[in-house]
Design a protein that fits this description.
single chain; three-stranded antiparallel β-sheet; 14 strands; 20% strand
């Protein structure tokens, strides 16, 4: 079997999607998103009612030092309920890894460089995710995935998953042939029925190709100095929009509906309202692999079957 890990995906990384991917043999993921510990516990208990498969919790921690105590409260809840705790957007931190291990979970850390990968291994991480610049959403990598994989695989002794630009079985086969132990997918799962992405967002992904994505820092309200990849059309629509508020969304962190400001870093779900086309439509260079809205299990099966067929042919 091929390890397929679902990416963090912000508010799309919900219990329904995580459960469906885990039941299909992948690793489903719920995003912490700063939600209170009790809310996170309820979400993870909901996933566990759906599946006995492998589930993880993604902790996006750009403000680690300021929020350490609050992050650790979430970690305490997550590590006893999930199989894997996944960290992104901070320097690898041994004390967080130790806390997750103490709760019984394995730890993965998504990195964008060889130095970061070595630091993650030294911090005690069980799995490292190498993220290339092709990735959608927030991007740590500064070089292409294959070049990065090359650097990281020879530098660490733990399993390495490949992330960024993987949307078809051919992509999956290519990175496995290059030495990756598995993959991490985001863009393709945005078009999973269970993700609950806004229909306008899904439609835009289906119509897009790799060259329609842009590596940028445009959507930086609420999260400055964080490069990301999204659809060029979203930047054009947000730039042309007149006014400060483009819509409304539900925030798990605040527990209520909140305004979406122009150029704000957020993810458009089905309950987001307003000018969806002017919100950040995150997309990796793998977006050409998104052909239609599908059940998550069908996506996993399609990827694995196509990859296995190619790998047999290449063997």
């Amino acid at each position: 079997s091929v390890p397929i890990q679902q990416a963090g995906m912000g508010s799309l990384a919900n219990p329904k999607l995580a459960g469906a991917i885990a039941n299909a043999g992948g690793q489903g993921m719920v995003s912490w998103n700063g939600m209170p510990p009790a809310v996170l516990a309820a979400q993870l208990d909901e996933v566990r009612r759906q599946t006995q498969g492998v589930i993880g919790v993604n902790f996006l921690v750009p403000d680690l030092e300021e929020e350490r105590e609050y992050i650790c409260q979430g970690l305490e809840v997550a590590a006893t309920r999930a199989n894997v705790i996944d960290f992104f957007w901070a320097d690898p931190d041994a004390s967080l890894v130790d806390r997750a291990h103490a709760g019984g979970a394995l730890v993965s850390w998504q990195v964008g460089s060889r130095a970061e990968a070595v630091a993650a291994a030294d911090a005690g991480c069980d799995v490292i995710i190498a993220q290339g610049i092709e990735a959608g959403g927030h991007v740590r990598g500064q070089v292409g995935l294959l070049a990065l994989l090359d650097q990281i695989i020879e530098a660490v002794d733990v399993p390495v998953l490949a992330a960024g630009g993987i949307g078809t079985g051919r992509d999956l086969a290519a990175v496995l042939a290059a030495g990756a132990d598995g993959v991490r997918l985001g863009t393709r799962f945005v078009a999973a029925e269970e993700a609950g992405a806004h229909p306008t967002y899904v439609k835009a992904l289906i119509a897009a190709e790799a060259e329609d994505t842009v590596y940028t820092e445009v959507f930086s309200v609420g999260w400055p100095d964080a490069p990301h990849r999204c659809l060029r059309a979203a930047i054009e629509a947000a730039t042309a929009f007149e006014g400060d508020v483009v819509g409304e969304r539900f925030s798990a962190y605040h527990g209520k509906r909140m305004p979406v400001h122009r150029f704000q870093s957020m993810t458009a779900t089905q309950d987001t309202t307003g000018h969806i086309e002017a919100m950040p439509l995150w997309a990796g260079e793998s977006v050409g692999g998104v052909k239609r809205l599908q059940p998550a299990a069908e996506i996993v099966t399609e990827l694995v079957e196509e990859a296995e067929k190619l790998l047999r042919r290449w063997a």
